[in-house]
Amino acid sequence: MTRRPLPAAFYARQTELVARELLGAVLECTVNGTRCRGRIVETEAYTGEEDLACHAAAGRTARTEVLYGPAGRAYVYFIYGMHWCVNAVTRRAGMPSAVLIRAVEPLEGIEAMRRRRHGRPDRELTNGPAKLCEAFGITGPRHHGASLISSPLRILEGEPVRDEDVAVTPRIGIVKAASDPLRWIVRSSAFVSGRRLRRDET
Fold first, then answer.
1. DSSP H helical ranges for 117-189
2. Which of 21, 82, 105, 131 would bridge with 191, disulfide CB 3.0–4.6 Å?
3. What is the value of pTM for the model shown?
4. 3-state DSSP call for residue 201?
């Protein structure tokens, strides 16, 4: 199936809206001729300098420069001295914000994902932001600042997710601004990080 990259205009909108509408889109990364694809099932919004959990809260630095635009670029950062995480930059230039891709459901390139994840069970290949970066071969040196429209790291159109299949929760794995409801998940997906919600939970 041919999938088109999401256009720049998709990202140049309110961060929360982009985070919600990225659910169901397809993350694609090609490294050394090997292509991996996965359906996005979990995202988090980081909304700008006023958001204490956003890296832009520290202001404009060499590290955060990509967050300041333009929209539709990859912001890839290193955590705990060992893991990469990938974000999609949002809003217009000068308004630093991004959506963290927290989990995807593998669609293509699963053998490569298994190899990069050192034989982990399939359920654990991409159910977290660092896990999916390892599985897809996403790193800062390769992908930080790359266009999510035209580079080997892209986000493609997918199947929309119905509102009744989506849950909104506080962000996880952070300390600052941890109660803000800025995490979106596909509630039925086995690849969501943390505990999966029942259908009757919000």
1. 129-136, 140-143
2. 105
3. 0.94
4. coil
